[in-house]
User: Fold this.
Amino acid sequence: MNSTRPLLAFLALAFAAHAQEVGPAKGALVVIGGGGKSGAIIERFVALAGGRDGFILVVPTADEKDPADTERCPGVAMLRNAGAGEVAMLHTRDRAVADSEEFTAPLRRATGVWLGGGRQWRFADAYLGTRTQRELFGVLARGGAIGGSSAGATIQGSFLVRGSPLGNQIMVAPDHLEGFGFLRNCAIDQHVNTRGRERDLVPVIAGRPHLLGIGLDEDTAIVVRGDVAEVIGAGIARFHDSKHEHWQELRAGQSFDLRRRAILASP
Assistant:
């Protein structure tokens, strides 16, 4: 028996943990600040999720309405028009169903998952802590992609803002503080430019200095691989933490190191 193998395995895991602390170790995230003119961003997500050869699940649970079937599900036609191959819906509001083997089976062959808009607390109430959430991480671990816009962006962070069922003007709701956590130690806001939200994350971060705040304009996204966020789209992506007095503002073509919380030099 080779006694060095356990040590080598441990060192490999330790290196991976050091090299990647915020985003997914494998796969990609596409986090969009809302808006209806994000065609090129959607196409980027579809390509990351396998394109014509992929299988993408659309999760519309943040919407207050329950789609009757896949063909009436918001987002399905959008993804097909952007070049997706097989697209289906995954939706429930019953946590017991969300925790079941049968419901989560499609996630184990999915190459991508799209999280729709609405109110992010509905995602949390249905899926947080269930087998569904675990299988979403499994999609990333296989090298797949998870994307989302508006509520589907905010739920990807670890700290949930605007999560109160009483209204989206409430930034911190004591009973809805946790997101899915695809981006660790992050709070994500959206619709920043159109709804005057430029400084709404500042008090959230001031009270929680471990967090990185990410504020996204409409039709603007970050594509995250590991700890690097690439900005794409028409507007501004803002990054704020307790060490910087002002937002760090990036536009398309720029990238941000989420671990070091610093703008990366252009190549």
In short: The first helix runs from residue 4 to 19.
